[in-house]
Amino acid sequence: MDLVLRAERVLLEGEVRPAAVAVSDGRIVDVGAVDSDHLTVAEAVVPSNGVLMPGFVDTHVHINEPGTDWEGFATATAAAAAAGITTLVDMPLDSDPVTTSVAALEVKRAAAQDRCLVDVGFWAGVVPENIGALAALAGVGVAGFKCFLTGSGNPNFGPLSTEQLRQAMSAIADLESVLLVHAESQHVIDAGPRPRGRGYSEFLDSRPDAAEEDAVALILDVAAATGARAHIVHVSSATVLPLLAEAKKSGVFVSAETCPHYLTFAAESVPDGGTQFAACPPIRGSANRDALWQALVDGTLDMVVSDHSPCAPELKGDGDFGRAFGGISSLELGPRAVWTHADTRDFGLAELSGWMSERPAMLAGLTDRGRIAVGLRADLCVFDPDAMAVVDVHAVRHRHPVSPYDGVALRGRVLQTWVAGRPVLGEVCAPL
Ligand SMILES: [Zn+2]
C-alpha cells in the first residue's frame, strides 16, 4: 500500500462509520475495519473532528483560460482543492478560443498542462457553426456538450435555434453523449424590460421565470423526440420543477442541477448595487428558494454544482446591473454553502455527497469516482462538518476577490484533500 487512512467517521455507502481506507497506485484497494493490518508506506489517522468523504466533483466551472485574466487553471484548482473538490469540469465559453473544435480543445489542454492541483475535464460547446462536427470532439474525450438558447454574452459562442437544437440533440443521441443546456429563451427575454441601474428588481424582471419555463419545455420536447440525454444547467426558477418531474416520470432522459447561490440567497436581500449577486438566470425570491430545496430533497433536481463564473472586477459594472457581467464566484465555497443548511433543511453528509460528488461524476461519465469504494480513484477529503467561519473574500483562492459570500457565515471546513491518493493541501490545512 502507498497510504492507509484510518478514521472513526468515513462516509461509506450512505452511512458514516469507522473504517480504514487503503490506497495503492492512486486507487482505493481496500476498505476494512479501522484497525485492520496493512503493510504501507504512509499512514494517517483522521482527527476526530473530521469525516473522510469522497472528493467533491464540480461539473460547472468557468476556468476562462486561455485568453482572459478572469480566472485560470492554477487559481481555480487551488480554490477547488481547498474546498475538497477533486474534479472540475470546465465550461467551453469565456475563454479564447472557445472550446468548439478539437484544435481549441488542444489549446485549452496545453494551457492546463502542469498547472492543475486537481483533476480537470472539459465540456465542448455546440454552436450553430459546429453542429456537423460533434463526433470529432466526442472522439477526443470531452465529457459531453453544452449549448445556449439565448445570447451567452460571447459573440464566439452563439445560441442554437430550435431547429439547430433538434439537429444537435439527434447527433448527441447517436454519440450516446449528453447535452447540457443553458435554459433561458431569447424571445421571452427580448419581450421584457432591459436591466438598468442599481436596483436588483429591474435585473430580476429582465430574466423572468417564463424564460426558463419556455426553454425547459422546449428541451424536454426535443429530448423526448430524439431520445437524447439532456441536462438542464443552473435551474433557478421553481416554475420548471413540475415540468422536470413530469418528464422524469414519463421516462425522458433528463437530469438537472441547481447552484449554491440559488439555495443560499434570495432576491429580497440582494442590496442595491450588489452586482456580485448578478447571475443569469438570476437569484429569485425566498419562496422560490424553498421550492428548489424541496426539489433537491425529492429528487426532481439531481445535483448541486457551483457555476463558478468569475470575471475581472471592473466588469461588474460599478454597481449598475445593466452593465454588470452575469456570473457568481463561489468555487471554494459551494460544499460549505450547501452544508450550512443541513440543520434547517434536514439532510446529512450522505445527501451532500450524493448531490455534490456522486451525481455530478455520473453526469460527466466519470464512473471511477464520486464514492469511496474498492476500485475507485482515491479522490478524498476530510471535512469537519461542525466548523463555522465567516467568509473573507480576500482569503479565498479564486483569482479576483469578488463574491456574494463575502461576510457570510458558513458551516464546515476541509482539513485535507487527496487527488488519486496524493495530498494536495499544503499550507492551507493541518497536515494529517
Ligand atoms: Zn455557467
What does this structure look like?
This protein has 432 residues and is α/β, with parallel strands linked by helices. The chain is built from 13 helices and 17 strands. It has a six-stranded parallel β-sheet. A four-stranded mixed β-sheet has the order 3-2-1-4, with no helix packed on it. A four-stranded antiparallel β-sheet has the order 5-15-16-17. Helix 8 links the parallel strand 12 and strand 13 (254-258). Helix 4 packs across helix 7. The protein is globular and about 65 Å long. Zinc ion is lined by residues 60, 62, 91, 307, 309.
Task: Please write out the topology.
Elements: E1 3-12, E2 15-24, E3 27-32, E4 42-45, E5 51-54, E6 56-61, H1 73-82, E7 85-90, H2 102-112, E8 119-122, E9 124-125, H3 134-138, E10 145-148, H4 162-175, E11 178-182, H5 186-191, H6 200-206, H7 209-226, E12 229-232, H8 241-249, E13 254-258, H9 260-264, H10 286-298, E14 303-304, H11 334-339, H12 342-345, H13 349-363, E15 380-390, E16 409-419, E17 422-423
Parallel strand pairs: 1-4, 6-7, 7-8, 9-10, 10-11, 11-12, 12-13, 13-14
Antiparallel strand pairs: 1-2, 2-3, 5-15, 15-16, 16-17
Helix pairs in contact: 4-7
Bound molecules: zinc ion (ZN).
